[in-house]
Design a protein that fits this description.
Radius of gyration: 24 Å
Order of helices and strands: HHHEEEHEEEEHHEEEEHEEEEH
Shape: elongated
Oligomer: single chain
Strand order of the largest sheet: 8-9-10-11-15-14-13-12
Length: about 290
Amino acid sequence: MNTKLPLLALVLGFSGVLSAQKADVKKVPLAKTATPYEWLMRPTSAFFAETGLSAADSVSADTYRVGLDTNESVLVNVGHLDATNQDVVWYVAYENFKVKDLKVKVDSLGRNHNIINDGDGNYSFWLADALVNISTNVQPNGKIGTVALDAIPVYRFMPPVADAVSKLDSTWQQLMTNVQYRPRTVERDSSKVSVTLKNVTPLVSYTVFYPQTEGARPYVSVVLNEGGGQGVLKWACKNYYDRFYDSFEQGSVWVSDSDQPIVKVGVLFDDGKLLNLTMTQSEFQDFAGSDEE
């Protein structure tokens, strides 16, 4: 499971092709209480358990239909996330619904998620672990339409923490004078100079802090841009730090290379910030000792 079906093909009548390819697959009704948009980014096994389908019931490669016919059915595409080694639902389309019924479903979606309009007629919303693009298609009669929800896993927007930490090897002058096609801001106070690199990806910005004290090591934070994606920082900690270390009221602490001369420490805050520190072994032992007291 590694190929997402083209969005346009799904929206513009791909259902007929699918039906022709495998007409003898198991058919299950669409429950009146079902909320298909909530299937997005769920494990495929959970989707199967709720609908009664199985992996063998695909209408085409990694694609499933919920509904007894092509009228008012839901098309679902699943795929494998290498980052988490998990099969998930990443595409859901309400196909051939009456427009008035689609409006009810879209209104429900809007009550549960903050729908973003980029100003060019494109709509999307954030899940904890995906950015979901919304597309619509209405038939010429204006009465029947389709709403497609295409989830883009946020892991694609998350640079390796090593990329952020690599900024610690740059001097303040290098970051200031190295022209890059992205906004940046510089702030100073009595203890440090900070350089913020905005929109490193659509999901995150970096802030690199340079202490004024001579010889003190810099540190860097990865900050979520407004909109969502908190799940990606938790994923980053699990994948880029060796182990969970401790939790506190507003977040958690993760470490790597805890037996090395320089120890990497990640502090994940609940407000969408991952602070990346480095400590000498003696500093880490002091930190660990104070933590145990």
